[in-house]
Design brief:
- It is a single chain.
- This protein has helices spanning 45-56, 84-93, 101-114, 134-137, 157-167, 218-228, 232-241, 244-249, 255-261, 264-288, 298-303, 305-314, 330-341, and strands at 8-15, 20-27, 31-39, 64-69, 80-81, 120-124, 174-180, 184-190, 193-197, 293-297, 322-325.
- By secondary structure, it is α/β, with parallel strands linked by helices.
- It has two domains: 2-149 and 334-341, Nucleotidyltransferase, domain 5 (2-Layer Sandwich), CATH 3.30.420.40; 170-325, ATPase, nucleotide binding domain (Nucleotidyltransferase, domain 5), CATH 3.30.420.
- The strands form two sheets. Strands 3-2-1-4-6-5 form a six-stranded mixed β-sheet, sandwiched between helices.
- The structure holds adenosine-5'-diphosphate, acetylphosphate and magnesium ion.
- Acetylphosphate binds at residues 16-17, 70, 125, 155-156, 181-183, 203.
- Keywords: ATP-binding, Cytoplasm, Kinase, Magnesium, Metal-binding, Nucleotide-binding, Transferase.
- Homodimer.
- The active site is at residue 125.
Length: 342
């Protein structure tokens, strides 16, 4: 019923590194999920839309399609309607997010072909961090490189937005958000705005992740370049796909599989991940000059109780820190923005 009177019916598409999530939302003042699901592949967008079309049968047709776009690049710092100029900027931004960017571009093109005439909206993970001060965005390399867009951007912004919105009037002045999913990042939020975050130019930096290194001594890359002859594609595979908990454990990057495996290597990988999260949270507390609340979110943050326990224990020394677990509602944020911008 609600869909018939909705201001907009939004098909929200969230292509993460390990899954494609879709949701059909009726948006008025409230945002109501009509139907949604997850497809555990990022390879075949034709197959993805076949599955979506089957799921959407009998529901109102989308009036707008909203996409999560991981990297907006140097020229896009606000969510926007997608046109040719935006597509050109997104193609440029692929250089900074090779893990997510090309898949998003392909998804927009296929969506345009499947739903001709339906407007599409880009919702950038980087937008939430666009107002970070120079102290956070500047990387410690010669300043000339900044002109080509090399700086800290920060990601998981839609997730952070959704946490700020869920907290509403309970939003504290000094908040740390730990988004712990397949990708993981930690963000310092002062009065609702990002002032620092753990990911950098790309979603490879910061916290150790499922298959990504997170921060790594740059000397390791130089050593591998010099001594093993690995080229850029091979290094990208190494740092994005073969490292993190998967690389250390030799088992998997999925926390559920690591817990079940219970080998020494899996245990080390998990303890390294937990330590890495605690260290990044402590760094964000330093950036904020203290913290009132830590929110855990993302697949691991929401569902893996032992990780939450380890983080509580690892941060027990922080005075006055309330720790909450909240769901990452990236898709609801996409629906809201798409309805507003269509
Ligand atoms: N019930 C669960 N218990 C423990 N860990 C979980 C559970 N469900 C999901 N996870 C973890 O969350 C990860 C996926 O997180 P999610 O935020 O959904 O990923 P994505 O980056 O694809 O958006 C999985 O790889 C797994 O490590
Ligand atoms: C930015 C990022 O790492 O996204 P995801 O966690 O969805 O892979
Ligand atoms: Mg995600």
């Amino acid at each position: 019923m609600v869909a018939l009177v909705a201001r907009a019916v939004v098909l929200a598409l969230n292509s993460g590194s390990s899954s494609l999530k879709y949701g059909l939302y009726a948006v008025e003042d409230a945002v109501v999920l009509l139907v949604g699901g997850t497809i555990e592949t990022t390879d075949d967008h034709g197959h993805f839309f076949d599955a979506i079309e089957r799921a959407l049968r009998g529901w109102p047709a989308p009036t707008v399609i909203g996409h999560r776009i991981v990297h907006g690049g140097p020229h896009r710092d606000a969510h926007c309607r997608i046109d040719d100029a935006v597509m050109a900027d997104l193609a440029t931004a692929c250089a900074f997010a090779p893990l997510h960017g090309p898949a998003s571009l392909a998804l927009i093109r296929v969506a345009g072909a499947r739903y001709p005439g339906v407007p599409q909206v880009a919702c950038f993970d980087t937008a939430f961090h666009a107002g970070m001060p120079d102290l956070a965005t500047t990387l410690p390399i010669p300043r000339a490189y900044r002109a080509s867009g090399i700086r800290r951007y920060g990601f998981h912004g839609l997730s952070c937005e959704s946490i700020v919105r869920q907290l509403g009037s309970e939003l504290p002045a000094r908040l740390v958000i730990a988004h712990l999913g397949n990708g993981a990042s930690v963000t310092a939020v002062r009065d609702g705005r990002s002032i620092d975050t753990s990911m950098g130019l790309t979603p490879t930096g910061g916290v150790m992740m499922a298959t990504r290194t997170g921060d790594l001594d740059p000397g390791v890359l130089l050593h591998l370049l010099r001594e093993t002859g690995l080229d850029a594609p091979a290094l990208a595979t190494l740092v994005d796909h073969a490292s993190g908990m998967a690389g250390v454990s030799g088992v998997s990057g999925d926390m559920r599989i690591l817990r079940a495996a219970a080998t020494d290597e899996a245990d080390l990988a998990i303890r390294m991940f937990e330590r890495s999260v605690c260290k990044q949270v402590a760094a964000m507390i330093a950036s904020l000059g203290g913290a009132d609340m830590l929110v855990l979110t993302g697949g691991i943050g929401e569902h893996d109780a032992p990780t939450a326990r380890a983080i509580r224990a690892g941060l027990a020394w922080v005075p006055g820190l309330e720790i909450r677990i909240l769901p990452s509602q990236e898709d609801v944020q996409i629906a809201r923005h798409a309805a507003t911008l269509a």
